[in-house]
Every structure is written in C-alpha cells, then in structure tokens.
Amino acid sequence: MANLATGTAPKKLSRRNASLGDRIFDTLNIIFLCLLMVVTLYPFLNTLALSLNRAMDSIRGGIYIWPRDVSLENYKYVFQQSTIFHATLISILRLVIGSITTVFCSAMVAYTISREDFVLRKFITIAFVLTAYVNPGLIPNYLNIRDLGLIDSFWVYIWPGLIGVFNLILIRSFIDGLPDSILESGRIDGAGEFRTFFSIVLPLCLPVLATVALFTAVYQWNSWLDVFLYNSSNIKLSTLQYELQKILQNSSASSSAASAFSNPDAAANAVTPLAVRATMTIVASVPMILMYPFLQKYFVKGMMVGGVKG
C-alpha cells in the first residue's frame, strides 16, 4: 500500500537487509540473554531438584537440575509438623492485612505531603526521611514495642512497618508526576480532598500501589526475626518462616539420630539440613512466584516512576 503522505511504498525491515554489525549485535544480545536466563533459573531448578531428591543421596553431590533419586520424604518431613498449617494461616493473614494497610496508609500520607498548600509538608517529609538515616537500635526498638503493648500480639507484625519511607517517597513521586489539570478538574466539580483521593488519585496510582504491595507482601511473607523477638513464646502467633527455621535446626539432630539406627531403611529416609533447606526455600517461595505474574505489568510501570513526566 502506498504511503498516503509521500506516495511511496514503505520500506520493509528485514534481517537480510541488516548490516553485518547489526547481525553481530543481535546475535550477541541473544547469547547474553540466554546466559542470563540460565544464570537466573539454574539456582531455583537446582534447589527444586535437591528438594525432590532423597536426602541421603543428595550428600553424594552431582545433582544439578534434575533429581537423581526422586522422593517426597523431604516435603513429608516439613509438612508433618503439627504447627506448620496454623503458622501458614498466620503468615497469610499477616501478608494480606499488612499489605493492604501499608499500601492504603502510605498512599494517604504520600498524597497529603504532595499537596503544595499543605503547611507542614516539608517538616513531615524531613521527619520521615530522617528515620531512614537514623536507626535507634535493637534494644530501644524492643523497649518501644513493649511500652506500646505489642508483645505477644498479632499487631506487632503490622503497626511498626505501617508506613515505610521508601514506599512513601515512591508513591509521592508518582503523584507529583500526575497532571495537575486532572486534580483541578475534580475540585471544580466540587470534589473534596477525600473524594479526590479515592476517586481520582488511587485509580491513577494503581501501578505504583501494586509495586508497593509486592514489596510489602515479600517482606511480610519472608520476615521471621520479629516473630523471634516479640512472639517466640506464643505458638499461636508463629509464622511459616519462623517454623521453617525451627525445622531446619531440628533436622540436624534427626539426621544424626537416624544415621545411628541399625535399620538401613530408616537411615535412607532420614533428612539432612541441605535437603530441608532446599525444601523450605521452595515452600516459602511458591506463593511469591504465583503472585508476581498478576502484578508484573503494574510492577514494571511502577518502577518507571519519574522516567516520563506527564
């Protein structure tokens, strides 16, 4: 079809017409991306193979991306623990409640300090940023949590990290990049600050909110130190990550005991710290792997905050 503007046929791009330099560049790019894919996938595939291989056989080494002696004993050992399912429920509740509250509260504060007519805008921004540079330490933080009455409480997983400085700056930068005409049109129609925030700002900030939600979900799911510090005496508030840490510690003792048995079947089915660590990694990473594809398009957009201004 002729080009309507110039009356000439458009040129067709073909690899046969590409120069030698372009072909070399494309070939090197393909090789580099293939190597990057291998480097990225190999650790996960190797860990998966170790988790599906018989533990005592894994000690011999030589397992790469495929199990040599397939067995589900490692997963049976992990899931036969009586507290594992309740701990998983607590981790899911922590992930859902923590992610929703963190995203919502961070978005509200970010919208507030992004308004130029807000009197305390600079003061509050500086106060939040200073917390990223000044860390009070473990003991003062523990005393603060104790004085707030959050010891042996589920809310110790939520309130301390309700508003993160990184999340706050990320959302505020995205809001600053929104066209002022959109917000002004809402105010002309009689929308107040709350209606502007819920009806205009939140829908437009969906990419960056999804990014913050992903960061928060990963943190909430993987965190176990706060369980050890504040709720280690309450088994009902234990999370999956903390229980997996305890299973890993117990696996060394069980492996040593099994190796002393005269029954060869018991020794063959014994677990090892290496196998348990691989199994724990797979169990803990599967929820995040399943979550990421649904947030990928928003994650990519959110990470481009500040790249293009409207």
Automatic annotation (TrEMBL):
Major subcellular location class: membrane
Boundaries of every ABC transmembrane type-1 domain copy: 88-284
InterPro entries: MetI-like, MetI-like_sf
Signal peptide: none
Localization (cell): Cell membrane
Keywords (A to Z) from UniProt: Cell membrane, Membrane, Transmembrane, Transmembrane helix, Transport
Bilayer topology annotation: Multi-pass membrane protein
Record Pfam families: BPD_transp_1
Transmembrane segment boundaries: 24-45, 84-111, 123-142, 154-175, 196-221, 274-295
Keyword Nucleus among UniProt keywords: no
GO CC entries: plasma membrane
Example GO biological process: transmembrane transport
Protein family membership: Belongs to the binding-protein-dependent transport system permease family.
Protein name according to UniProt: Aldotetraouronic acid ABC transporter membrane protein 2
Source organism (scientific name): Cohnella lupini
